[in-house]
Design goal:
Blueprint lengths: L1 H30 L1 H8 L10 H74 L2 H43 L1
Helix pairs in contact: 3-4
């Protein structure tokens, strides 16, 4: 009987020795654990995304930006239309003022000549000079009326342009 117990004791001692070795191995591994944790820690430098997530993000960004771009383009177009109408109005006004300047210069000279000749003629020739003066005055009046007709025509063209632009804008 002593023999079987001796075998149990030797088995127990070998198990104890094996456990001691395991503890020392585990102890050395556990002591090095903080360094291993730091070495094995991964740092993400680049995040990889699946292509489906990337395409979904792109479509979401596109759907949010397209209405903004359309809004900005519409605002730019209306501003350009407004500037174009203003340019056309300024060109028409310039033409109108040029016509006025050219006509008023001619009218002023004709009136001065008529008035100067009228004074001389009245004193010198009587009725014949009065008729000549009247004829000159009528010619000057005809020129003024021609200028007025031209001015009204330019104004009518300008109003037609404005009306067409306002109808086109709506």
């Amino acid at each position: 009987m002593a023999n079987p117990l001796a075998d149990c004791v030797s088995s127990l001692r070998s198990s104890n020795h094996l456990l001691g070795n395991s503890i020392s191995i585990l102890d050395s591994g556990v002591n090095d654990f903080p360094r291993l944790a730091k070495v094995l820690q991964t740092t993400k430098h680049f995040e990889l995304l699946p292509s489906s997530a990337l395409s979904a993000a792109q479509s979401q960004l596109l759907s949010s930006l397209v209405p903004e771009f359309n809004n900005l383009l519409a605002r730019v177009e209306t501003h350009l239309d407004r500037l174009e109408r203003r340019e056309q109005a300024l060109v028409a006004r310039c033409e109108l003022l040029d016509g006025r300047l050219s006509m008023s210069g001619e009218d002023g000279e004709a009136m001065k000549k008529a008035a100067g000749l009228g004074r001389k003629s009245l004193a010198a020739e009587g009725d014949v000079s009065r008729e000549a003066l009247k004829l000159r005055q009528l010619r000057a009046k005809k020129e003024r009326l021609g200028y007025t007709v031209e001015r009204l025509g330019l104004q009518a063209q300008q109003k037609e342009r404005q009306l067409r632009l306002s109808v086109a804008a709506q």
